[in-house]
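User: Before I run my own analysis I want an independent prediction to cross-check against. Here's the chain; please return only the structure tokens and, at the end, one sentence I can use as a sanity check.
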Amino acid sequence: MLETILFWLTLVGILYYVITSLLERLRVKNLTEKPVLITGCDTGFGHDLALKCLQEGMPVLAGCLTQQGCDGLILIAKNRQLNVNRLHTFLLDVRSDESVKNARKCVEEYIKSYNGLYGLVNNAGIGGNVSFDDWLLVQDYKDVLDVNTLGVIRVTHAFKDLIKKTKGRIVTVASSSARVALPSFGPYTVSKFAVASYMDVIRVELGFFGVSVSTLEPGFFKTPLTCAKRNTDMMERLWNRATPETREEYGEKFFNAAKSVTQRILVDQCIEQTEQVVDAYFHALTSYFPRPRYQVGKDCVYGYAPFSFLPSRWQDWTFKLARYLANLPLPKSVSDK
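Assistant: Structure tokens:
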């Protein structure tokens, strides 16, 4: 009896995987008539996604934080001999209500020659100050939340009525850190857990209107946010900013070891193939049957995602083992006891 049940469960699982894999390959038609708005196009995933969408013939509205980002994107598009007439860049600061309001005007003007706004990609994000919570301030959390969480909500509120009219797509980047709360990644992790939850909410709500909502959960990829020098310099700054009492509590030995471990992880373990994330973005925009969630990168697929289902106590044990294997000492005030 048990063998029969296991057989049928396995068969159903295989059929589900095969059928969904085939259905996900179906692509929506008339991409040349489906404008997509992408935030955070100065560098990184947003920059590369804008170029990929343009290459595939999609009209692209690229929001950049700086004029340099706008000009650089146009220049690269020209160098690749892409149709820059389908590329419209403009300044967009997702932290600013006024900036988002001005972006709305730009988008409304641009989409008059099309059937509306088909896609919104919430890509803009920052790493912020990432370190142990004892070395951080409340403002560090506010700064990251204002971009990674409130920025997504602010932009989505500004444009979702246009997406509803076309029964289009909203795609947002979260992170593998939205599944596993990594020590020393407090502000970033909090912001990504929050934005993933927001996407879960509106995925159901906007489903009433035929809107597809997808969330990306990339692992650690080599981008400006994961630059080893940037992050180790940041740790130095935060350590020097900490109170004398905090520095005494942790000790120089702990700080230097923590900095070394961080640098080793960012140099050795970050994935270089950033096109995996861009391809996931594009699939969520163009597949007739997009996924609600995309785990991207082998570290997320085989590490963080399954790890997130472990009991909390098991996760804590794993972190303790990882600390031991990484040769990270205890804080000075603990080891002295």
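Sanity check: The chain has two domains: 26-221+271-325, 223-270.
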